[in-house]
User: Which sequence fits this backbone?
């Protein structure tokens, strides 16, 4: 594998670079922002789920959660999305660095695929977040059902998404396939408009 | 219709894709042509309980076996097709 | 004009807020809280529309969603909404409504002459009359009928408003916020269950506001307000007014239409006009009340004939006198309350006409209090020209007595509002003692309470509601608790109904059963005489119940009459079932956000902005927007641009974004074994760093998809699929992985969007790439030959993947970088290729080059072709089991006579041939039987300077050199073509190895 840490000379462009931010008005019920975490899909190799769990416990100090749940280590979040399959979310980093790092620790027991650039992630935060998402996401987001530490894959506005709640508050992250990011963000902003909405692009763009 | 995915919980129909009869088992590669014709083309369409493959494409991407009443749409059970396939192999061997 | 018919006090109207509105161009004043119907009645307007078929003058029959008569066009211009029920439309300042189906004006309707010719327009009239000659139908009869018969006009321009869809979840959904619904919601909410209470009216409370009743010593209206305030104070309750639950679906799913802005002149900023909710409820209580049944007698449609309960609604809720001199005609005691309310509001009540031989004590007492005479008998017919002026009563001794009046309050009993109980196929059950269809088999998680059950009574309804609400919450997993006080101790005044059926008075004039579709008792009789027995046939033949109100007031009267004539019971006659939606839903609400540019989700490639800057014209490829061609300044035609793009690639170098091809990352110890099963050809011997073309079949032996797959490491492969089949192939592979070969260690993940992939094609491709790929990587022909694949870095350390693949037939590569760098990569390639006049090319050029090379694509991989058909039989391995292997070998699928892939070129080098043209022998007649195949793809070949193409031709492989006709009657083309091998360019393939 190529060394992912050397400095490239190609400029990174956000998946929602073309988005026109709505004109600010009144209260901001929903603040939408673009975030660019590193994302890697992780799947246990046949017969190695216990080994994988042990390796993650040893290297990251985290337990692997069941589908629909999230566990955390200092830097990593493990999102259970299917039996034996997770997404690992980490702070912004150059492409493939997370996959490269995880492969060193877990490669014997897991298959890993970098999804950082395959997805765009939007953060939806504010008192009207749930009311906004009711127009898009066909899931019960009530805290008693989808509280802290919950994640789900579903379809919103005809687009497949992965959604998880940040902490226990009114903050959600939604990952969509990159090509749908603009279309989805437009739907999101239109849905939030009645509550007052702001949009903050990732000004630095993705990490170089 | 809502299907209770064993991985994701109860979800609405639009997340799923229908394939068909889950009681069919793929014949061995050396099986006779008529066995294959039966597998590929012949389908039961009972006016009652049936077992069907559904794909949770907008969720966990699991293939599921859904036990359903074809007239009332009542769902009796949903399991991973992988487990059903393994069970079938165990059962026949 | 002042509101002459407004009662001075009371009602749920806001007398401080006067509202100006216009009906048929004339201005009126009403109050906030009025419906259009109540405001018109307050102003003495009784004639509000003309009927569908006979253009008869019509007034306001009801005060709710069941209204069949009082329909109008609400608003104007692009916001014009036809067939709006005036009885549910809230008025607002500036409201503008117009009556429907009248010409030239409501009071003077020329087409009412049809009414005089009445007998002609009986059931089945159109079917019987306009049969011959057939050609007249479309041009003459239909436009004429459409002008004469019809309701409102659709808006002339696109709807300027927005609509939304949303989803809500609850433990208990309560439908209807009348007495039973409020009780159900309170009982459920007190267990802690999440409750949604939907009310279609803009005021919750139902008949509690329409009737002067007492509950536990409080006025019913006050009880409702208190209970609703208690409900709204609970955090686990959502009260949704203006929200009609319109449909029931499987799994506790309901559709509800929230009329967010229908009561405003235009929606507030960022607010939709309507929002369509999908409500997912664990359990449901249907408390939809009952609909009063009209009585069927001659002239029962005259303006001024109104349902008795609705009369009370207008008096009590809207403080409106719907007339000045009233007669009440009823077969039950509920209408006694109407007598009391009429008298109380100062309307003279001439008489109570009762067909029942013996009046109850309750009725006698009520009438005595109001000093209203009781006449035992029936209304034979009503008379009056454009509004009611008298009723003619046939008394029990047979005498006809005329009573002058301008209001007739009628009641034929009550029909439980069971619409929603039948959506999943539940069949209503006839219950003789209340003479009504009551809910039969219910949707699995639904309970019914209140008047919707068919059992009358206010106290009973509240008790039933409370019990149903508690039961629903319990079923949803909540522990029962004591009911709140409001619904515990119940004491209300009496509820005797004393109903006796009266289905039809055989008197003078047209007796309407279905007001909206102008179906009369005579029509039902005629249908019976003509042999119709089934209610479904009756419905279609007479159109009974087929109007926009779905026969809410009509169905039971029609069925009962049919039963009577055919000498069956109503239970034997049966009933039709209702279908969604319960109330009209704007198409816009069904579409929600998905209209115009947002009709469907769009998917953009990483180079979309760059391509836009290059002037690209885009086309849809599934959800993707792909560059179709890049017109240069002087070019006006797509063909000019395409020809230039192809020439540039073939002569020098071009780039094309191919990100949209599906990319599936396949990893695992058994990845190669897995590929052996899903592809027809062999994979275990593919070396690391190499790619191979693969063919995939369906299990029935036909081709599913094709593409190249590269081996990146011992246990990792990157598969590419066609753009169109990406999702389908992924799903198929998951089926193979999870179901067919579930023991393998292999995982699949879509990596399509993670990588921006750009094809660099043309003799100069290597020179361009050499400038970008970091020097450590040798990409010479020797080190990186055709079908090589590997990881590289470029531009000083950007990670990438390089594949030496060629769809164009030229020396070509596909270079992939993380998607964020896609745009920069395109720019860098353009800069690096500047000295070679590098050209961006689009899908059109891509297609031309693949046709010149004879590569099969979507038009050939069309689900009906086999590997043999496409000349790929050599890829069918005989050494392994793969999907489709056995079925692909069936004799019929390997028959040489099947249409096989060929190339062709017109003999006339200027002729153009298009896809779909049929291959015919040169002298054969142009019939389907003579067709031997068809053109699948055609393109202008810049290389050959003429149109060429690919096709599927029977025995194709053996017919090179033959001349056939390419016959295209659809576009008027007929030209002779020579059949040739399907490769037109660089047959030896030396260029791609260059």
Assistant:
């Amino acid at each position: 594998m190529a060394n992912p840490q050397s400095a490239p000379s190609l400029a990174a462009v956000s998946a929602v670079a073309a988005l026109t931010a709505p004109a600010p008005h009144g209260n901001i019920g929903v603040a939408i922002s673009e975030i660019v975490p590193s994302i890697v899909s992780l799947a246990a190799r046949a017969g190695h789920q216990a080994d994988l769990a042990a390796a993650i416990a040893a290297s990251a100090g985290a337990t692997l959660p069941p589908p629909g749940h999230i566990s955390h280590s200092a830097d990593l979040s493990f999102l259970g999305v299917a039996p034996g399959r997770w997404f690992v979310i980490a702070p912004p980093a150059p492409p493939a660095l997370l996959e490269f790092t995880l492969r060193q620790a877990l490669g014997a027991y897991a298959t890993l695929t970098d999804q950082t650039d395959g997805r765009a992630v939007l953060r939806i935060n504010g008192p009207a977040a749930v009311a906004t998402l009711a127009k898009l996401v066909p899931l019960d987001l009530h805290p008693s059902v989808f509280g802290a530490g919950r994640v789900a894959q579903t379809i919103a506005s005809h687009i497949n998404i992965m959604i998880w709640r940040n902490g226990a508050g009114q903050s959600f992250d939604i990952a969509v396939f990159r090509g749908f990011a603009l279309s989805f963000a437009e739907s999101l902003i239109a849905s939030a408009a009645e509550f007052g909405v702001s949009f903050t692009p990732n000004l630095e763009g993705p990490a170089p | 219709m809502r299907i209770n995915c064993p991985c994701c919980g109860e979800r609405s129909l639009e997340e799923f894709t229908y394939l068909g009869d889950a009681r069919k088992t793929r014949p061995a590669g050396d099986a006779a042509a008529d066995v294959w014709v039966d597998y590929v083309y012949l389908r039961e369409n009972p006016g009652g309980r049936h077992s069907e493959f559904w794909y949770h494409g907008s969720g966990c991407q699991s293939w599921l076996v859904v036990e359903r009443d074809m007239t009332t749409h009542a769902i009796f059970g949903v399991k991973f097709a992988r487990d059903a396939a393994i069970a079938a192999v165990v059962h026949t061997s | 004009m002042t509101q002459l018919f407004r009662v001075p006090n009371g009602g749920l109207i806001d007398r401080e807020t006067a509202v100006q509105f216009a009906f048929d161009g004339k201005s009126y004043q009403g109050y906030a809280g009025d419906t259009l119907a109540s405001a018109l009645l307050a102003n003495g307007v009784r004639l509000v529309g003309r009927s569908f078929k006979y253009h008869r003058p019509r007034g306001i029959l009801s005060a709710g969603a069941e209204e069949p008569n009082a329909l109008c066009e609400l608003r104007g211009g692009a916001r014009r909404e036809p067939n709006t029920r005036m009885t549910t439309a809230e008025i607002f300042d500036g409201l503008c409504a117009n009556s429907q189906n009248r010409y030239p004006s409501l009071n003077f309707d020329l087409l009412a002459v049809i009414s005089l010719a009445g007998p002609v327009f009986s059931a089945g009239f159109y079917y019987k009359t306009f049969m011959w000659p057939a050609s007249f139908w479309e041009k003459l009869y239909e436009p004429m009928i459409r002008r004469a018969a019809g309701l409102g006009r659709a808006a002339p321009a696109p709807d300027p408003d927005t609509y939304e869809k949303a989803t809500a979840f609850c433990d208990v959904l309560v439908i209807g916020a009348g007495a039973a619904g409020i009780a159900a919601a309170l009982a459920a909410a007190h267990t802690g269950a999440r409750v949604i209470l939907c009310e279609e009216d803009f005021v919750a409370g139902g008949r509690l506001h329409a009737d002067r009743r007492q509950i536990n010593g409080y006025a019913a209206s006050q009880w409702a307000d208190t209970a609703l305030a208690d409900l709204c104070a609970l955090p686990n309750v959502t009260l949704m007014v203006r929200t009609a639950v319109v449909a029931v679906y499987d799994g506790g799913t309901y559709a509800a239409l929230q009329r967010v802005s229908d009561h405003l002149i235009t929606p507030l900023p960022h607010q939709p006009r309507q929002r369509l909710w999908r409500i997912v409820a664990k359990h449901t209580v249907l408390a939809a009340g009952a609909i009063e049944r009209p009585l069927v007698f001659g002239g029962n449609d005259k303006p001024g004939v109104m349902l008795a309960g609705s009369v009370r609604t207008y008096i009590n809720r809207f403080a409106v006198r719907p007339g000045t001199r009233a007669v009440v005609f009823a077969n039950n005691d509920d209408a006694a309350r109407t007598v009391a309310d009429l008298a109380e509001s100062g309307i003279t009540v001439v008489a109570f006409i009762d067909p029942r031989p013996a009046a109850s004590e309750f009725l006698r007492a009520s009438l005595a209090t109001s000093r209203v005479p009781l006449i035992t008998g029936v209304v034979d017919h009503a008379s009056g020209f454009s509004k009611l002026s008298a009723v003619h009563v046939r008394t029990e001794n047979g005498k006809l007595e005329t009573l002058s009046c301008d209001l007739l309050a009628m009641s034929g009993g009550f029909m439980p509002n069971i619409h929603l109980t039948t959506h999943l196929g539940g069949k209503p059950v006839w219950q003789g003692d209340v003479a009504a269809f009551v809910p039969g088999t219910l949707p699995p998680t639904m309970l019914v309470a209140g008047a919707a059950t068919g059992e009358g009574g206010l106290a009973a309804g509240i008790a039933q509601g409370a019990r149903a609400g508690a039961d629903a919450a319990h079923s949803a997993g909540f522990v029962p608790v004591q009911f709140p006080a409001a619904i515990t101790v119940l004491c209300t005044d009496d509820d005797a109904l004393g109903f006796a059926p009266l289905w039809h008075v055989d008197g003078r004039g047209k007796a309407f059963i279905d007001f909206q579709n102008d179906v009369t008792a005579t029509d039902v009789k005629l249908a019976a005489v003509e042999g119709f027995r089934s209610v479904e046939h009756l419905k279609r033949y007479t159109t009974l119940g087929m109007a926009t109100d779905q026969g809410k007031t009509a169905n039971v009267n029609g069925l009962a009459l049919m039963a009577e004539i055919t000498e069956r019971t109503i239970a034997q006659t049966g009933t039709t079932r209702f279908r969604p939606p319960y109330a009209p839903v704007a198409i816009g609400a069904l579409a929600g956000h998905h209209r115009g540019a947002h009709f469907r989700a769009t998917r953009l490639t990483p180079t979309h902005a760059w391509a836009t800057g290059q002037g690209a014209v885009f086309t849809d490829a599934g959800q993707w927007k792909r560059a179709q061609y890049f017109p240069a300044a002087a070019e006006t035609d797509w063909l000019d641009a395409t020809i230039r793009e192809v020439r540039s690639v073939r002569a020098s170098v071009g780039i094309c974004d191919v990100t949209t091809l599906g990319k599936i990352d396949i990893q695992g110890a058994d990845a190669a074994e897995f590929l052996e099963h899903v592809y027809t050809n062999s994979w275990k011997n593919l070396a690391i760093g190499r790619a191979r073309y693969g063919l995939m079949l369906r299990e029935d032996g036909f081709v599913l998809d094709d593409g190249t797959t590269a081996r990146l490491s011992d246990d990792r492969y990157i598969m590419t699929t066609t753009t169109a089949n990406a999702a389908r192939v992924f799903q198929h592979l998951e089926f193979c992985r999870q179901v067919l070969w579930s023991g393998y260690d292999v995982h699949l993940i879509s990596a399509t969007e993670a990588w921006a992939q750009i094809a660099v094609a043309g003799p100069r491709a290597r020179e361009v790439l050499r400038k970008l790929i970091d020097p450590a990587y040798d990409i010479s022909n020797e080190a990186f030959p055709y079908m090589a694949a590997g990881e590289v870095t470029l531009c000083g350390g950007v990670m990438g993947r390089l594949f030496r693949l060629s769809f164009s037939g030229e020396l070509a590569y596909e270079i992939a970088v993380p998607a964020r760098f896609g745009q920069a990569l395109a720019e860098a390639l353009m800069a690096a290729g500047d000295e070679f006049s590098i050209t961006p090319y689009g899908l059109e050029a891509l297609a031309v080059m693949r046709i010149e090379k004879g590569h099969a694509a979507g038009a050939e991989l069309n689900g009906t072709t086999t590997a043999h058909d496409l000349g790929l039989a050599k890829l069918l391995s005989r050494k392994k089991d793969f999907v489709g292997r056995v079925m692909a070998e069936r004799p019929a699928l390997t028959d040489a006579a099947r249409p096989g892939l060929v190339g062709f070129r017109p003999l006339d080098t200027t002729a153009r041939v298009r896809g779909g043209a049929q291959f015919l022998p040169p002298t054969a007649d142009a019939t389907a039987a003579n067709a031997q195949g068809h053109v699948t793809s055609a393109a202008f070949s810049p290389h050959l300077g003429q149109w060429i193409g690919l096709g599927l031709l029977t025995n194709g492989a053996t017919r090179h050199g033959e001349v056939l006709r390419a016959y295209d009657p659809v576009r008027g083309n007929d030209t002779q073509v020579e059949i040739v091998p399907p490769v037109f360019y660089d047959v030896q393939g030396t260029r791609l190895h260059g």
Notes: The longest strand of chain A covers residues 38-44. DSSP finds four helices and eleven strands in chain A. Residues 69 and 154 of chain A are 14 Å apart (CA to CA). The helical segments of chain A are 49-60, 97-106, 129-133, 181-192.
